[in-house]
Structures are given as structure tokens and as C-alpha cells.
Amino acid sequence: MIRFENISKTFGKHTVLQNIALTFEQGQAVAIVGPNGSGKTTLIKSLLGMVIPDTGSIYVDNQNIKHDFSYRSKIGYMPQIGHYPPNLSIRQLIEMMTDIRKGIIDSKQLDFDIIKDFELEKIYEKKLGTLSGGTKQKVSAALAFLFDPQILILDEPTAGLDPLASEILKQKIFKEKNKGKLILLTSHILSDLEELSSHLLYIQDGQIQLFKQLSQLKEEYDETRLSKIIARLMQVKLSPSLPQPYWV
Amino acid sequence: MNKVIKYVIYDILRNKFVMSYTLLLLLVSLAFFGFEADANKGLLSLLNIILMVVPLVSIIFTTIQFYNSYEFLELLSAQPIGRKTIFLSQYLGIGISLCLAFVIGVGLPTILLEGTTKGLTLILCGLLLTLVFVSLALLASVCTKDKAKGIGIALAIWFYFSIVYDGFVLTALLSFSDYPLEKASLFFTTLNPSDLARIIILMKLDISALLGMTGAIFQQFFSSILGIFIAIVLLILWIIVPAWRALAIFNKKDL
Fold first, then answer.
1. Phi and psi angles of residue A94, each rounded to the nearest 5 degrees, phi first
2. Where is the ABC transporter domain (chain A) (predicted)?
3. Which residues from chain B sit within 8 angstroms of residue A72, using beta carbons?
4. Looking at CA atoms only, how far is residue A67 from chain B in angstroms?
5. B3, A88: Cβ pair inside 8 Å?
């Protein structure tokens, strides 16, 4: 479904991605894990066309994404922090996003689950500038799921949400995963990743260190908890003199 | 493309800064037309304000607006629309909103109180200047990711065109005053959009004598229909070229 072919990217002297070759298939829920600055965000951004790789190509459904933006109608993206035009209301933002897809997507297929579950209708006329960080996050989630996309890219989806909202969102992600969608997740909350994902992609220094099924990993390492596995992964990669990762 | 512009304009028009800008222009216009018995003098005073305030507000507001909507531009670029559409919707959204503010603030009072060709020239020049500085601001904004740096560049551009440039030209003209520099000074003018706008209006107001030595040459050149036409085309080029450069950079930019 998504194929990265030898993607490299440098910012100035700093190499962020180095010869990334990857294939994601339908039905996978991939947890993308790696230390800060390891290239996770750049990987996601290059898939979305926000960052243009120096070399290599990315294919979505066998279509090269370089000169054609139509593939993005298949993607629902939830950014880490949502910043929206402050004077628009939630209703107008949703209208705009629907307008952009007019003719591409049938408006009957819209998925209002998240909007209903988060009770966003009650604050539909509120200006986006007046919303709290958590509420903005809810709006971002609503937009990501609204068009029932085949691919979901969720960047730290539960960060900033209250426990109830976070649970609702996780339920929704789980539901979409079971429908056979491709889900790419980044998070520093490993328990969330463990609940939701089927595969683990571990990136460090712009290179893929590991891309495996979670169940297989658990067998290999003889561990039942993802945090332990990742701790061991990082210990192998990092020199022993460095302090342990904060979550261990 | 108009799918996005509509919402950008809607957002900006409710911006308090744009509202205050409109109100300020309206107050200044009414004041000048009210205080000056001679409408020509009113226009002239208004011109001086416009040549300073319009570029300053346009360039600063556009830059700040661009950086404030940066994350939103990111989100838009994850939607099924092209970079060109995103850029143009920002450009036109900001441009149309600021032009609307100018039309309400300066346009309406001028048409009501001094609806001559002179008044209309002033409005046209104000609108063109607005768009020129929106273009320059976007060019400055796409060049750097750092907000403070972007605003700094924008301020420097305004400072250069509104204050420093005239000083340079004057120094050059004085140092080489032994040579015939009429043609050169004409050429220097085309390199500064503010000067172009100023001269178009001054010529329309028929007070070019105030311009002194080179006034005659300007009079000769700019008073003809062709002269004014060329000046307007040059101003339009000042809109298109920076905007086009900014678009080219934005197309390849990593957000």
C-alpha cells in the first residue's frame, strides 16, 4: 500500500533519513518508535508531501506521490499540535475540509463518530482560537477520521487528551484497525502503542533498525511488555555509559 | 482554490488588527478631507500617510499572518490540494482582505468627498502598493523558518523602500550632479514601488514643480497617458515578480 524506495533526506549537514526502504500493507497498525530527532516526523512528513526527500521515491497504491497530490485524499492525518485559523468556528473548519474534497469523496460517507463521541456539536460555533489545547486535539482527531480514509497517520494522538477522551480515541483507532485500514502511529506512551499496534518500526539516526510484527518480537525477546523490548533495543544501540531511557 | 480563499478571508476580516487598520485609515481620511478646505491638499496629506502606513501595515501583517498560520499550512499540505493552491489562497486571502480594508478606510471617503480622477488614482495606487508589499512580505516569509528573522527582513524591506532608498538616490544625484542624470533618476524611481506610486499621484495632482530639477523630466514622462500606463505596469510587475519567486520557493520548501 505504501512503499518507500531509498528515501534520503539531509537538512544542511545533518542526515535525517538514510536510505529508507519500507513497505506498509493494508491492515497493519505500525507503531513508529525512536528517540527524539531520530527521523520519525521527517518520515511521516515526507509521506505527506510536506518534506521533499533528496533522493528516492514514495509510492501510495503504486502511484508515485511526487507530482500528484490526489493520493492525499486517501490519508487522514492528525498532527501533534493543531493550530487553526483563530477566527473560524469548528463548523467552518469542517466545511472547508469537506469543500477541499468535494468531487473526490462522497459526502454521505463522512464518518461523524468522533465528532459525536467528543460532543463537538455542542461547541460547533465556537471560534477555534478560543479552544483549549485538548479540545483542539479533539478537532484534529475528528478531521483525521472524518473522510473515512484508507490510511491513518496519527502523530502523538493521545498526548494532551484527558483519560476519557484518550480512551474514546483509542477505541476508534482500534475499530478502524479492525476494518483493515493501515494505521501509522507515533507516541511516547508505550502502553498505548502496545494496545493499538500490530507492528513495531524502530528508527534511530535516520535508519531503520527494526521492522517486525509485535507478536514475533515478543517471542524473540521472550518479553511480554513492549517497554522492556524497546529498552533492550535501545541498550543495544546506545553505548552502555549513557543513562537508561526515561520510561524504564 | 476559492474553496480555501473564502475561509482565509473570513478569518482575516474578523482579525482585530485588520479592523483597527480599517478604522485608522477611515479616521485619517475623514480628518484630512475635513480639515483641508482645498481637496487637493487633503489628497496630498493623505498621500503622505498612505505611502508610509499602507506598506508598513501590509508587509508586517502579511509576515505575521504567514508565520501564525504555518501549522495550518502544514495541515493544508496534508490535504488533497497542491502547494500552488495553498500559496495562492494565502496570498489572495491576505491581499483581498487588506485591499478591502483600504477600500473601506480610504476608498469610500475619497470617492464621496473627492470623486475625481485624482481621487481614483490615489485609491488605485494604494491598492497596488498594498499588493506589492504583500508579495514582498511573502517572499521574505518563505525564505526563512524563523519568525523573528522573517519579521526583521520584512521591516528592513519597508525601511529600505520608504526611508533609506530616497537617501541613496539623493546622495547619488548630488555626487554626480555635474552630469545629466534625468534619465538615471527616472530609472531609479522604477526600482522603488513607493516612489512609483508617489509620482503617479503627484503628477495627477499637477504639483510636479515641487519636484525641482528632475520635475520637468518626470512631468514630460509621467503626465502622458503612456507614462502613467508604464508606471502602473511597473507596479504590477512589482506585485507579480516577488509573488512568483515566493511561490517557486514555497513549492520546494520543506514545511
1. -65, -40
2. 2-230
3. 78-81
4. 9
5. no
* Helix/strand/coil for A25: coil
Owner of C-alpha cell 501533534: A80
Residues of B in contact with A71 (CB under 8 A): 80
* 3-state secondary structure at position B90: helix
* Three-state DSSP class for residue A156: coil
Q: Which of B162, B140, B164 is nearest to B151 (CA)?
A: B140
Which cell numbers in the block locate residue A160? 494532551
CA atoms within 13 A on the CB side of B215: 10
ipTM of the complex: 0.84
CA pair distance A186, A179, nearest whole angstrom: 20
pLDDT at B20 > cutoff 70: yes
SS3 B176: coil
Pairing mode, strands A14-24 and A182-186: unpaired
pTM of the model: 0.87
The DSSP annotation for A94-128 comes to HHHHHHHTBTTB-GGG---HHHHHTTGGGGTTSBG
Task: Report how far apart, in Å, the C-alpha atoms of A160 and of each of A91, A129, B131, B200, B236 are.
Answer: 22, 17, 40, 56, 47
- Residue A245 located in a structural domain: no
- pLDDT averaged per 10 residues in sequence order, chain A, 248 residues: 89 88 90 86 90 90 87 90 89 90 75 87 90 91 91 89 91 90 89 87 88 85 82 68 57
Alpha carbon of A178 to those of A25, A172, A217: distances in Å?
14, 10, 21
| Domain total of chain A | 1
Q: Is B47:B201 a contact under the CB 8 Å cutoff?
A: yes
* Shortest Cα distance, chain A CAs vs residue B20, angstroms: 16
Q: How far apart are CA B74 and CA A48, in angstroms?
A: 10
Q: Is A65 part of a structural domain of the chain?
A: yes
Measured in degrees and rounded to the nearest 5, phi and psi for residue A209 equal -90, -30
Any bridge partners for residue A10, and if so which? A15
Q: How far apart are the first and last CA of chain B?
A: 20
Domain that holds residue A205: 2-237
* Nearest in space to A201 (alpha carbons), one of A26, A37, A39: A39
* Domain locations in chain B as residue ranges: 2-252
**Residue B84's closest chain A neighbor by CA?**
A69
The CATH number that applies at residue A40 is 3.40.50.300
HSE toward the beta carbon, residue A218, CA cutoff 13 A: 10
Taking contacts as CB-CB distances below 8 angstroms, the residues of chain A near B81 are: 69, 72, 100
Residues 6-65 of B with CB under 8 A from A: 6-8, 10-12, 14-15
Q: How far is CA A181 from CA A143, A158, A197, in A?
A: 16, 19, 12
Please tell me the distance from the alpha carbon of residue A117 to that of residue B208, in angstroms, as a whole number. 69
Question: What does the alpha-carbon distance between residue B209 and residue A244 come to, in Å, rounded to a whole number?
Answer: 79
Cβ contact B4–A100 (<8 Å): yes
